[in-house]
Amino acid sequence: MIRLLRPADAAIAAQLARTDAPFSHADVGATARPESLVALAHRYTFDHSRFPLGRGRDVFDRAREALFAWRHFEIPWLELCGSEAPVRPGQSVATLTRVFGLWFLSPCRVVDRIDPAGETNEVSFAYGTLAGHVACGEERFTVRRNPETDDVVFEIFAFSRPAIPLARIGRPFMRRAQARFRTDSAAALRRAVESATTSAAPH
User: Fold this and answer.
1) C-alpha to C-alpha distance for 71 and 152, rounded to whole angstroms
2) CA distances from residue 6 to 11, 102, 182 in whole angstroms, order as listed
3) Taking the complete model, does pTM exceed 0.70, yes or no?
4) Pick from 49, 76, 100, 192: most CB atoms within 10 A?
5) DSSP bridge pairs for 133
6) CA angle, corner 119, sides to 114 and 124, nearest 5?
7) Comparing C-alpha atoms, which of 160, 143, 21 is closest to residue 90?
8) What's the CA gap between 84 and 17, in Å, rounded?
9) Full DSSP string of 154-197
10) How far apart (Å, rounded) are the C-alpha atoms in residues 40 and 48?
C-alpha cells in the first residue's frame, strides 16, 4: 500500500485483519530449511548479517525475550503496526515508513516461531511478505548462544526481490534501506538487552 498521506488507523487495522491475505511468494518457510535455499538463488537476493550482543546465558535470555516482544523494531524511522502481542505464528504485522514524501505500508505474516521448551541456545522466528508489500520474500531473526565461548549473537537472514515496478526501478535504494534496517534492528535489540540488564541490576 502506497499513499501520499499517512494511512488512517482504520485502514491499517483493516490490512492487519485480512487473515485471507496471501503470501506474495511460494517459498514460505524456506529460511528454516537450508537445503532448499540453493534452488532459490536464481530467483532472490540473499542477505545474511550477524551482530554481537554480548556474552552469557543472561544476555541470551534477555535477547530472547526482547526478540519475541518485537523490540528489534524500535527504530526511529520505522513504525511496526500490529506488534502489541508477542510473536506468534499467523500474526500479521506491517511496517510503515515514509520515503520521498510517500507512505509505504508493507504487510507481513509470521511464518513460525522456533522456541524450544527448556534450556536452549537458539531461538528464532520468520515472517514472509504479503500481497501489497514492496518486496517479495522472507526474513528470519535468530538469537544464538555459542555454548563453548558463551558469545551471544543476533542474526538476520533474508531472501527477497522487488515486488512492484517502483521497487524494481528504485532497487538500489531498496537495497540500501534493507541494509540500514538490519544495522538499526541489531542496534535496537542491543539497546533492549542493555536496558533490561541495567533495570535488573541491584541498586
Assistant:
1) 17
2) 10, 8, 24
3) yes
4) 192
5) none
6) 20
7) 21
8) 14
9) EEEEEEEEE-SHHHHHTHHHHHHHHHHHHHHHHHHHHHHHHHHH
10) 15
Q: What is the DSSP letter of 56?
A: S
| DSSP H helix total and E strand total for the chain | 5, 8
Give the CA distances from residue 37 to residues 3, 15, 57, 142, in Å, rounded to whole numbers and listed in that order. Answer: 34, 30, 31, 17
Q: How far apart are CA 170 and CA 151, in angstroms?
A: 38
Give the torsion through C-alpha atoms of 189, 143, 88, 195, to 10 deg: -30
Cα 154 to Cα 158: distance, rounded to the nearest angstrom:
13
Q: Can you give the pLDDT of all 203 residues of the chain as single tens digits?
A: 788 889 999 999 998 998 888 999 999 999 999 888 988 999 999 999 999 999 999 999 999 999 999 999 999 999 999 999 999 999 999 999 998 889 999 999 999 999 999 899 999 999 999 998 999 999 999 999 999 999 999 999 999 999 988 888 889 999 999 999 999 999 999 999 999 766 665 54
Residue whose C-alpha cell reads 517459498 in the numeric block: 27
Residue 58 makes CB contacts below 8 A (sequence gap 6+) with 197
As assigned by CATH, the class of the 24-76+110-200 domain is: alpha beta
| CA–CA separation, 111 and 154 (whole Å) | 19
Domain limits, the chain:
24-76+110-200
- CA-to-CA dists, residue 38 to 35, 88, 143, 152, 158, angstroms: 7, 28, 23, 27, 13
